[in-house]
Design goal:
By secondary structure, this protein is mainly alpha-helical. It has a domain at about 45-85. It is about 65% helix and about 0% strand. The chain contains 2 helices and no strands. The termini are far apart. Keywords: Membrane, Transmembrane, Transmembrane helix.
């Protein structure tokens, strides 16, 4: 009977994992749970400010990405120019 102990090991591993999982805290005890309301950020008068801040961060990230690509393209072009022409 080949593989008899491997099946037993799988069953024991499943039981051990189930025992470990049952000792964990529930999602309701999680301090990072999104169900807790933060009234300062959820104030409707702050919505426009939050939306503008989000778009500002996004445009700032896009500008940074473009500048990095331009810089890397310049460096790669300079590298190949030096390889072709030499010193």
């Amino acid at each position: 009977m080949a593989g008899g102990t491997s099946g037993l090991d799988m069953i024991n591993s499943t039981k051990n994992n189930r025992n470990i999982r049952s000792g964990r805290t529930k999602m309701s005890d999680n301090p990072y749970n999104q169900n807790k309301s933060d009234f300062q950020n959820r104030n409707p008068s702050n919505y426009t400010e939050l939306i503008e801040e989000r778009f500002d961060r996004k445009s700032e990230g896009e500008r940074l990405t473009v500048s990095i690509y331009v810089g890397l393209t310049f460096l790669i072009g300079l590298f190949f120019y030096i390889l072709m022409v030499g010193f």
